[in-house]
Amino acid sequence: MYWEKEIETMPREELMKLQEQRLQKTLEQAQKTAFYKELFRKNHLDPQKIKTLEDLRNVPPTTKEDLRNHFPYGFLAVPLEEVVRLHSSSGTTGTPTVIYHTAEDLEKWTNQVARCLYMVGVRRGDVFQNMMSYGLFTGGLGMHYGAERIGALTIPIGPGNSKRQIWFMRNFKTTVIHIIPSYALLLASIIKSEGLDPKEDLYLHTLLIGAEPHSEETRRRIEESFGAKAYNSYGLSEMNGPGVAFECVYQEGMHLWEDYYYLEVVNPETLEPCSPGEVGEILLTTLNRDATPIIRYRTRDLAYYYEEPCPCGRTHRRISRIRGRSDDMFIFRGVNIFPIQIEKVLMNIPEVASNYRIILDREDFKDTMKVEVEIKPEFFFGDLLKLERLRERIKAELRSEILVTPEVVLVEPGSLPVSEGKAVRVIDQRKM
Protein backbone atom coordinates (compact mmCIF):
# COMPACT_ATOMS: atom_id res chain seq x y z
CA MET A 1 0.00 0.00 0.00
CA TYR A 2 2.79 2.45 0.83
CA TRP A 3 4.72 1.92 -2.35
CA GLU A 4 2.49 4.47 -4.08
CA LYS A 5 4.14 3.83 -7.41
CA GLU A 6 1.79 5.95 -9.52
CA ILE A 7 2.48 9.07 -7.43
CA GLU A 8 6.07 8.42 -6.40
CA THR A 9 7.25 7.74 -9.96
CA MET A 10 4.92 10.19 -11.72
CA PRO A 11 6.53 11.91 -14.73
CA ARG A 12 7.70 15.43 -13.86
CA GLU A 13 5.23 17.16 -16.18
CA GLU A 14 2.27 15.32 -14.62
CA LEU A 15 3.60 15.99 -11.12
CA MET A 16 3.83 19.73 -11.81
CA LYS A 17 0.25 19.71 -13.15
CA LEU A 18 -0.88 18.00 -9.93
CA GLN A 19 0.98 20.66 -7.93
CA GLU A 20 -0.76 23.47 -9.82
CA GLN A 21 -4.16 21.85 -9.23
CA ARG A 22 -3.48 21.53 -5.52
CA LEU A 23 -2.06 25.05 -5.38
CA GLN A 24 -5.50 26.38 -6.38
CA LYS A 25 -7.02 24.59 -3.38
CA THR A 26 -4.32 26.01 -1.10
CA LEU A 27 -5.00 29.55 -2.36
CA GLU A 28 -8.73 29.08 -1.82
CA GLN A 29 -8.09 27.95 1.74
CA ALA A 30 -5.59 30.75 2.36
CA GLN A 31 -8.22 33.37 1.50
CA LYS A 32 -10.24 32.11 4.47
CA THR A 33 -7.47 33.10 6.91
CA ALA A 34 -7.15 36.55 8.44
CA PHE A 35 -3.44 36.69 7.63
CA TYR A 36 -3.54 35.86 3.92
CA LYS A 37 -6.70 37.84 3.29
CA GLU A 38 -4.83 40.93 4.53
CA LEU A 39 -1.58 39.94 2.74
CA PHE A 40 -3.34 39.66 -0.62
CA ARG A 41 -5.17 42.96 -0.09
CA LYS A 42 -2.08 44.88 1.01
CA ASN A 43 0.00 43.61 -1.94
CA HIS A 44 -2.81 44.06 -4.49
CA LEU A 45 -2.79 40.35 -5.33
CA ASP A 46 -5.73 38.49 -6.79
CA PRO A 47 -5.33 34.80 -5.78
CA GLN A 48 -7.52 33.76 -8.71
CA LYS A 49 -4.87 35.10 -11.07
CA ILE A 50 -2.17 32.93 -9.51
CA LYS A 51 -2.49 30.00 -11.88
CA THR A 52 1.02 28.57 -12.15
CA LEU A 53 3.90 27.75 -9.86
CA GLU A 54 5.81 30.60 -11.48
CA ASP A 55 3.00 33.03 -10.54
CA LEU A 56 3.46 32.00 -6.92
CA ARG A 57 6.71 33.97 -6.76
CA ASN A 58 4.63 37.16 -6.68
CA VAL A 59 3.40 36.26 -3.20
CA PRO A 60 5.65 37.58 -0.39
CA PRO A 61 7.17 34.79 1.75
CA THR A 62 5.66 33.88 5.11
CA THR A 63 7.93 33.87 8.18
CA LYS A 64 7.93 32.42 11.66
CA GLU A 65 7.42 35.97 12.91
CA ASP A 66 4.18 36.15 10.88
CA LEU A 67 2.95 33.00 12.60
CA ARG A 68 3.82 34.43 16.02
CA ASN A 69 2.37 37.87 15.31
CA HIS A 70 -0.97 36.36 14.26
CA PHE A 71 -1.27 33.95 17.19
CA PRO A 72 -3.55 32.17 17.88
CA TYR A 73 -6.03 31.99 14.98
CA GLY A 74 -4.68 34.23 12.21
CA PHE A 75 -3.68 31.26 10.03
CA LEU A 76 -6.71 29.07 10.71
CA ALA A 77 -8.70 28.37 7.52
CA VAL A 78 -11.49 26.14 8.88
CA PRO A 79 -14.04 26.52 11.69
CA LEU A 80 -12.46 25.69 15.03
CA GLU A 81 -14.89 22.82 15.58
CA GLU A 82 -13.32 21.02 12.59
CA VAL A 83 -9.88 21.07 14.24
CA VAL A 84 -8.92 17.88 16.09
CA ARG A 85 -5.30 18.61 17.04
CA LEU A 86 -2.74 21.37 17.29
CA HIS A 87 1.03 21.29 17.55
CA SER A 88 3.16 24.23 18.59
CA SER A 89 6.69 25.31 19.27
CA SER A 90 7.78 25.55 22.89
CA GLY A 91 7.33 29.30 23.03
CA THR A 92 10.36 29.65 25.32
CA THR A 93 11.57 32.63 23.30
CA GLY A 94 8.18 34.31 23.08
CA THR A 95 4.80 33.59 21.54
CA PRO A 96 4.70 30.02 20.17
CA THR A 97 3.89 29.13 16.57
CA VAL A 98 0.73 27.02 16.30
CA ILE A 99 -0.32 24.67 13.50
CA TYR A 100 -3.85 23.22 13.41
CA HIS A 101 -4.96 19.93 11.84
CA THR A 102 -8.29 18.52 10.77
CA ALA A 103 -8.85 14.75 10.92
CA GLU A 104 -8.23 14.61 7.16
CA ASP A 105 -4.98 16.58 7.57
CA LEU A 106 -3.76 14.01 10.09
CA GLU A 107 -4.75 11.16 7.78
CA LYS A 108 -2.69 12.69 4.96
CA TRP A 109 0.27 13.32 7.27
CA THR A 110 0.16 9.71 8.50
CA ASN A 111 0.17 8.44 4.92
CA GLN A 112 3.08 10.74 4.09
CA VAL A 113 5.18 9.38 6.97
CA ALA A 114 4.22 5.77 6.19
CA ARG A 115 5.44 6.36 2.64
CA CYS A 116 8.82 7.48 4.04
CA LEU A 117 9.18 4.47 6.33
CA TYR A 118 8.23 1.99 3.65
CA MET A 119 10.79 3.59 1.32
CA VAL A 120 13.65 2.64 3.69
CA GLY A 121 12.43 -0.90 4.32
CA VAL A 122 10.19 -0.68 7.40
CA ARG A 123 7.50 -3.36 7.11
CA ARG A 124 4.69 -5.08 8.97
CA GLY A 125 6.38 -7.31 11.53
CA ASP A 126 9.09 -4.79 12.41
CA VAL A 127 9.40 -3.56 16.01
CA PHE A 128 9.64 0.24 16.00
CA GLN A 129 10.99 1.95 19.14
CA ASN A 130 10.29 5.67 19.10
CA MET A 131 12.84 7.56 21.20
CA MET A 132 11.55 11.03 20.30
CA SER A 133 9.51 13.32 22.54
CA TYR A 134 5.75 13.05 22.47
CA GLY A 135 3.41 15.99 22.96
CA LEU A 136 3.47 19.35 21.22
CA PHE A 137 6.75 18.37 19.51
CA THR A 138 5.75 16.74 16.20
CA GLY A 139 8.55 14.17 15.97
CA GLY A 140 7.09 11.62 18.36
CA LEU A 141 3.47 11.46 17.26
CA GLY A 142 4.25 12.02 13.59
CA MET A 143 6.49 8.96 13.28
CA HIS A 144 4.33 6.94 15.69
CA TYR A 145 1.23 7.02 13.51
CA GLY A 146 3.24 6.38 10.34
CA ALA A 147 4.81 3.27 11.88
CA GLU A 148 1.44 1.99 13.04
CA ARG A 149 0.01 2.56 9.56
CA ILE A 150 2.76 0.36 8.13
CA GLY A 151 1.78 -2.32 10.64
CA ALA A 152 4.94 -2.27 12.78
CA LEU A 153 4.72 -3.06 16.50
CA THR A 154 5.24 0.46 17.88
CA ILE A 155 6.83 1.18 21.28
CA PRO A 156 6.12 4.82 22.33
CA ILE A 157 8.96 4.93 24.83
CA GLY A 158 10.00 8.56 24.30
CA PRO A 159 13.48 9.99 24.97
CA GLY A 160 16.02 9.36 27.70
CA ASN A 161 16.47 6.68 30.37
CA SER A 162 19.06 4.85 28.33
CA LYS A 163 19.18 1.63 30.38
CA ARG A 164 15.43 1.28 29.99
CA GLN A 165 15.78 1.86 26.24
CA ILE A 166 18.35 -0.94 26.06
CA TRP A 167 16.13 -3.28 28.12
CA PHE A 168 13.23 -2.77 25.69
CA MET A 169 15.47 -3.11 22.65
CA ARG A 170 16.79 -6.45 23.85
CA ASN A 171 13.56 -7.96 25.22
CA PHE A 172 11.27 -6.94 22.36
CA LYS A 173 13.94 -7.40 19.68
CA THR A 174 13.58 -3.87 18.35
CA THR A 175 14.46 -3.67 14.65
CA VAL A 176 13.91 0.06 13.95
CA ILE A 177 14.55 3.10 16.16
CA HIS A 178 13.75 6.79 15.70
CA ILE A 179 16.46 8.78 17.45
CA ILE A 180 18.36 12.08 17.56
CA PRO A 181 21.87 11.64 16.03
CA SER A 182 23.81 12.90 19.06
CA TYR A 183 21.81 10.59 21.33
CA ALA A 184 22.43 7.65 18.99
CA LEU A 185 26.17 8.02 19.56
CA LEU A 186 25.67 8.44 23.30
CA LEU A 187 23.41 5.37 23.43
CA ALA A 188 25.98 3.29 21.56
CA SER A 189 28.61 4.19 24.16
CA ILE A 190 26.24 3.32 27.03
CA ILE A 191 25.43 -0.04 25.43
CA LYS A 192 29.15 -0.80 25.28
CA SER A 193 29.62 0.30 28.89
CA GLU A 194 26.99 -2.30 29.84
CA GLY A 195 29.24 -4.97 28.36
CA LEU A 196 27.11 -5.36 25.23
CA ASP A 197 27.94 -5.10 21.55
CA PRO A 198 25.41 -2.95 19.62
CA LYS A 199 26.07 -5.04 16.52
CA GLU A 200 25.86 -8.49 18.11
CA ASP A 201 23.47 -8.11 21.04
CA LEU A 202 20.71 -6.06 19.37
CA TYR A 203 18.42 -6.75 16.41
CA LEU A 204 18.46 -3.38 14.63
CA HIS A 205 18.47 -3.06 10.87
CA THR A 206 17.35 0.59 10.55
CA LEU A 207 17.85 3.85 12.44
CA LEU A 208 15.75 6.90 11.54
CA ILE A 209 17.73 9.99 12.52
CA GLY A 210 16.73 13.63 12.49
CA ALA A 211 15.64 16.65 14.57
CA GLU A 212 19.13 18.18 14.67
CA PRO A 213 21.73 18.99 11.98
CA HIS A 214 24.43 16.37 11.56
CA SER A 215 27.19 15.63 9.10
CA GLU A 216 27.68 12.65 6.81
CA GLU A 217 30.61 11.67 9.01
CA THR A 218 28.30 11.50 12.05
CA ARG A 219 25.85 9.30 10.13
CA ARG A 220 28.63 6.89 9.15
CA ARG A 221 29.79 6.70 12.76
CA ILE A 222 26.25 5.79 13.83
CA GLU A 223 26.06 3.08 11.17
CA GLU A 224 29.43 1.66 12.18
CA SER A 225 28.46 1.69 15.87
CA PHE A 226 25.19 -0.23 15.39
CA GLY A 227 25.96 -2.23 12.26
CA ALA A 228 22.71 -0.91 10.74
CA LYS A 229 21.63 1.64 8.15
CA ALA A 230 20.86 5.17 9.38
CA TYR A 231 18.54 7.27 7.23
CA ASN A 232 18.42 11.04 7.27
CA SER A 233 15.06 12.81 7.34
CA TYR A 234 13.73 16.34 7.17
CA GLY A 235 10.67 17.90 8.69
CA LEU A 236 9.43 20.98 10.51
CA SER A 237 6.29 21.59 12.52
CA GLU A 238 5.08 24.36 10.22
CA MET A 239 4.89 21.74 7.44
CA ASN A 240 3.33 19.07 9.73
CA GLY A 241 6.56 17.66 11.15
CA PRO A 242 8.51 14.54 10.11
CA GLY A 243 7.92 13.21 6.63
CA VAL A 244 8.53 16.33 4.54
CA ALA A 245 11.57 14.68 2.95
CA PHE A 246 13.31 11.35 3.49
CA GLU A 247 16.20 9.39 2.07
CA CYS A 248 15.61 6.27 0.02
CA VAL A 249 17.89 3.24 0.26
CA TYR A 250 20.49 4.93 -1.97
CA GLN A 251 21.12 7.64 0.68
CA GLU A 252 21.86 10.22 -2.00
CA GLY A 253 19.66 13.12 -0.91
CA MET A 254 16.17 13.22 0.57
CA HIS A 255 13.07 12.90 -1.62
CA LEU A 256 10.77 15.83 -0.85
CA TRP A 257 7.16 14.82 -1.45
CA GLU A 258 6.09 17.27 -4.12
CA ASP A 259 2.45 16.17 -4.10
CA TYR A 260 2.32 17.61 -0.56
CA TYR A 261 4.69 20.57 -0.85
CA TYR A 262 5.96 23.00 -3.44
CA LEU A 263 9.72 23.44 -3.04
CA GLU A 264 11.74 26.55 -3.76
CA VAL A 265 15.45 26.98 -3.01
CA VAL A 266 16.37 30.67 -3.02
CA ASN A 267 19.20 33.03 -2.17
CA PRO A 268 18.38 34.03 1.44
CA GLU A 269 19.37 37.65 0.78
CA THR A 270 17.71 38.30 -2.60
CA LEU A 271 15.09 35.49 -2.64
CA GLU A 272 16.09 34.78 -6.24
CA PRO A 273 15.91 31.10 -7.29
CA CYS A 274 19.04 28.98 -6.92
CA SER A 275 20.33 26.59 -9.55
CA PRO A 276 20.63 22.82 -8.95
CA GLY A 277 23.54 22.15 -6.61
CA GLU A 278 23.61 25.74 -5.33
CA VAL A 279 23.03 26.08 -1.58
CA GLY A 280 20.12 28.34 -0.66
CA GLU A 281 17.23 28.68 1.75
CA ILE A 282 14.30 26.28 1.47
CA LEU A 283 10.86 27.84 0.96
CA LEU A 284 7.86 25.52 1.19
CA THR A 285 4.18 25.85 0.30
CA THR A 286 1.62 23.36 1.61
CA LEU A 287 -0.38 21.73 -1.19
CA ASN A 288 -2.47 19.18 0.70
CA ARG A 289 -3.52 20.67 4.05
CA ASP A 290 -6.83 22.32 4.96
CA ALA A 291 -6.63 23.74 8.49
CA THR A 292 -3.40 25.73 8.22
CA PRO A 293 -2.35 26.53 4.66
CA ILE A 294 1.06 28.22 4.46
CA ILE A 295 2.46 29.86 1.35
CA ARG A 296 6.19 30.23 0.62
CA TYR A 297 7.31 29.59 4.18
CA ARG A 298 10.87 30.69 4.95
CA THR A 299 12.25 27.66 6.75
CA ARG A 300 15.70 29.25 7.29
CA ASP A 301 17.14 25.82 6.45
CA LEU A 302 19.98 25.83 3.92
CA ALA A 303 20.32 23.06 1.34
CA TYR A 304 20.49 22.45 -2.39
CA TYR A 305 18.41 20.32 -4.72
CA TYR A 306 19.48 17.66 -7.18
CA GLU A 307 18.61 17.86 -10.84
CA GLU A 308 19.54 14.34 -11.90
CA PRO A 309 17.01 11.52 -11.37
CA CYS A 310 17.43 9.10 -8.46
CA PRO A 311 18.41 5.48 -9.16
CA CYS A 312 15.40 4.35 -7.08
CA GLY A 313 13.02 5.59 -9.79
CA ARG A 314 11.16 8.14 -7.69
CA THR A 315 10.69 11.42 -9.53
CA HIS A 316 10.12 13.75 -6.57
CA ARG A 317 13.08 16.10 -6.32
CA ARG A 318 15.77 15.41 -3.75
CA ILE A 319 17.31 17.92 -1.39
CA SER A 320 20.70 17.62 0.23
CA ARG A 321 21.14 17.18 3.95
CA ILE A 322 20.63 20.49 5.73
CA ARG A 323 23.88 22.43 5.46
CA GLY A 324 23.04 24.83 8.28
CA ARG A 325 20.52 27.52 8.97
CA SER A 326 20.47 31.10 7.87
CA ASP A 327 19.71 31.97 11.49
CA ASP A 328 22.08 29.69 13.47
CA MET A 329 25.09 30.98 11.66
CA PHE A 330 27.46 32.84 13.93
CA ILE A 331 29.95 35.50 12.88
CA PHE A 332 33.45 35.23 14.30
CA ARG A 333 35.91 38.00 13.48
CA GLY A 334 33.99 38.76 10.31
CA VAL A 335 33.72 35.13 9.15
CA ASN A 336 30.33 33.42 8.77
CA ILE A 337 30.46 29.96 10.40
CA PHE A 338 27.91 27.19 10.78
CA PRO A 339 28.36 24.68 13.63
CA ILE A 340 27.88 21.83 11.15
CA GLN A 341 31.18 22.83 9.48
CA ILE A 342 33.05 22.21 12.73
CA GLU A 343 31.26 18.91 13.35
CA LYS A 344 32.17 17.71 9.87
CA VAL A 345 35.88 18.23 10.58
CA LEU A 346 35.81 16.70 14.06
CA MET A 347 33.82 13.62 13.13
CA ASN A 348 36.30 12.85 10.36
CA ILE A 349 39.20 12.55 12.81
CA PRO A 350 39.48 8.96 14.15
CA GLU A 351 40.79 9.96 17.58
CA VAL A 352 37.82 12.25 18.33
CA ALA A 353 34.89 10.89 20.35
CA SER A 354 31.28 11.95 19.75
CA ASN A 355 31.00 14.94 22.08
CA TYR A 356 32.29 18.48 21.62
CA ARG A 357 31.22 22.06 22.22
CA ILE A 358 32.05 25.50 20.88
CA ILE A 359 32.41 28.37 23.35
CA LEU A 360 32.41 31.93 22.03
CA ASP A 361 33.50 34.74 24.32
CA ARG A 362 34.93 38.24 24.26
CA GLU A 363 38.15 39.29 26.00
CA ASP A 364 39.58 42.81 25.81
CA PHE A 365 37.02 43.66 23.10
CA LYS A 366 38.24 40.73 20.99
CA ASP A 367 36.14 37.66 20.12
CA THR A 368 37.55 34.29 21.15
CA MET A 369 36.51 30.78 20.11
CA LYS A 370 37.32 27.66 22.09
CA VAL A 371 36.47 24.20 20.77
CA GLU A 372 36.43 21.57 23.51
CA VAL A 373 36.83 18.08 22.08
CA GLU A 374 36.46 14.72 23.82
CA ILE A 375 39.10 12.18 22.78
CA LYS A 376 38.47 8.43 22.66
CA PRO A 377 39.88 6.60 25.72
CA GLU A 378 42.46 4.62 23.75
CA PHE A 379 44.04 7.84 22.48
CA PHE A 380 43.70 10.08 25.52
CA PHE A 381 46.24 8.27 27.67
CA GLY A 382 49.07 8.53 25.19
CA ASP A 383 52.13 10.69 25.81
CA LEU A 384 51.81 14.45 25.92
CA LEU A 385 53.74 14.96 22.69
CA LYS A 386 51.21 12.83 20.75
CA LEU A 387 48.29 14.72 22.28
CA GLU A 388 49.87 18.04 21.35
CA ARG A 389 50.35 16.85 17.76
CA LEU A 390 46.70 15.79 17.66
CA ARG A 391 45.59 19.15 19.00
CA GLU A 392 47.63 20.98 16.38
CA ARG A 393 46.24 18.74 13.65
CA ILE A 394 42.66 19.48 14.72
CA LYS A 395 43.42 23.22 14.77
CA ALA A 396 44.89 23.07 11.26
CA GLU A 397 41.95 21.12 9.84
CA LEU A 398 39.44 23.48 11.47
CA ARG A 399 41.29 26.48 10.06
CA SER A 400 41.18 24.92 6.61
CA GLU A 401 37.39 24.54 6.87
CA ILE A 402 36.30 27.73 8.70
CA LEU A 403 39.22 30.03 7.75
CA VAL A 404 39.96 31.07 11.34
CA THR A 405 42.00 29.32 14.02
CA PRO A 406 40.13 28.51 17.22
CA GLU A 407 41.67 27.47 20.50
CA VAL A 408 41.37 23.67 20.73
CA VAL A 409 41.15 21.96 24.12
CA LEU A 410 41.36 18.17 24.33
CA VAL A 411 39.38 16.74 27.23
CA GLU A 412 38.85 13.29 28.71
CA PRO A 413 35.99 11.14 27.40
CA GLY A 414 32.79 11.72 29.37
CA SER A 415 33.89 15.09 30.76
CA LEU A 416 31.59 17.30 28.66
CA PRO A 417 27.87 17.63 29.44
CA VAL A 418 25.68 15.14 27.57
CA SER A 419 22.05 15.44 26.63
CA GLU A 420 19.39 12.87 25.81
CA GLY A 421 17.62 15.61 23.87
CA LYS A 422 19.04 17.97 21.28
CA ALA A 423 22.73 18.54 21.88
CA VAL A 424 23.75 22.10 22.79
CA ARG A 425 26.86 22.61 20.69
CA VAL A 426 27.38 26.39 20.76
CA ILE A 427 27.62 28.53 23.90
CA ASP A 428 27.83 32.15 22.87
CA GLN A 429 28.85 34.19 25.91
CA ARG A 430 29.50 37.33 23.89
CA LYS A 431 25.87 38.39 24.36
CA MET A 432 26.02 38.18 28.15
UniProtKB/TrEMBL annotation:
Molecular-function GO terms, alphabetical: ligase activity
Catalyzed reactions: 2-phenylacetate + ATP + CoA = phenylacetyl-CoA + AMP + diphosphate
The protein's enzyme class: ligase
E.C. number: 6.2.1.30
Highest taxon listed in the record's lineage: Bacteria
Occurrences of domain AMP-dependent synthetase/ligase (ranges): 78-284
Pathway per the UniProt entry: Aromatic compound metabolism; phenylacetate degradation
InterPro entries registered for this protein in UniProt: Adenylate-forming_Reductase, AMP-bd_C_sf, AMP-dep_Lig_C, AMP-dep_synth/lig_dom, ANL_N_sf, PA_CoA_ligase
Record's keyword terms, sorted: Ligase, Nucleotide-binding, Phosphopantetheine, Phosphoprotein
This protein's record includes keyword Nucleotide-binding: yes
Family, per entry: Belongs to the phenylacetyl-CoA ligase family.
PANTHER family in UniProt: ENZYME, PUTATIVE (JCVI)-RELATED, PHENYLACETATE-COENZYME A LIGASE
Role: Catalyzes the activation of phenylacetic acid (PA) to phenylacetyl-CoA (PA-CoA).
Protein's UniProt name: Phenylacetate-coenzyme A ligase
